[in-house]
Amino acid sequence: MGCPIPKAEALIQMLDDEATVPFLIRYRKNIVGDWSPDEMRSFKDHYTKAKEIVQRGKFVSKAISGIGHWTPAIQNKLDCALTMSELDDLYEPYKPAQVLSKFVICRNCGLDRVADQILQKQHIDLNRFVDPESEHRKTMEDVKMLLIAFISETMVCRMADFPRLWREENWTFHCSKLTRGKVVDDKENFKKFYNFRRPARYVRADEMLAMNRGGKKKILKVSLTPRDHLKEDVRRAIVDCFGLRNLPENDVGDVLSRAVTTAQDRLMKKIPKKIQTDCTRSAEATAIQ
């Protein structure tokens, strides 16, 4: 980016101290200079990626050392790597056997086609997919768990097309003081947020950014709680989307019912994360204006 070293060092120090882009643009003009918010964000992104590469390099070095293959030559290559892909290429020959997710195992076993048929509520005898000699399909429950993982993933992806489930008005921010360990609140006064509750759509930009800072400093616990009956609405949306009312009382019906529950639980964890991310982005944009 053509950034002078003294300026880069000063900005890095402030970013490590949890300074946000809006704060730097507004209150640290003497260091930021004539950079626009986009340029400041670009610098922060580059620095974040650089830190991730350094951390990944340390992990790879430790992993290779742990299996007795570390050499100064390998370490030199790790130190010279400038991208994650370079580090991954160096690590590839030393990686342990990969632990596959149930979703991937289901696809590798050819059960993804069976999952699609089940979603269409076709009658299928699941017993014929049980194989006591197979690593992943020894029992009927093994087969069901693979199918549930695949079908629930399909359901979660499809629910992205239902914006009413992702609205801010469905959620309320809760903020409280962390009680575990010794809490030091020496730079900012977070007392306002020790017992804070407000609908997500009404949280101001400065409040959102302050809660994030308190959370990163482990002074505050920030969470989102859903409105009454939202979980039931999520389940109803899944059922209606895939036409799953009046399920048959057999193995196929059991798989579908459990897949709906799994997708419902995953969405109730995924939606608030997106709400918090969206609120943070909106707050940062507002703070810069």
Automatic annotation (TrEMBL):
InterPro entries on file: Tex-like_central_region, Tex-like_dom_sf, Tex-like_HTH_dom_sf, Tex-like_N
Signal peptide per UniProt: none
Source organism (scientific name): Nesidiocoris tenuis
All copies of domain Tex-like central region, residue ranges: 175-289
Protein's recorded name: Uncharacterized protein
Superkingdom in the source lineage: Eukaryota
Domain Tex-like protein N-terminal residues, every copy: 7-64
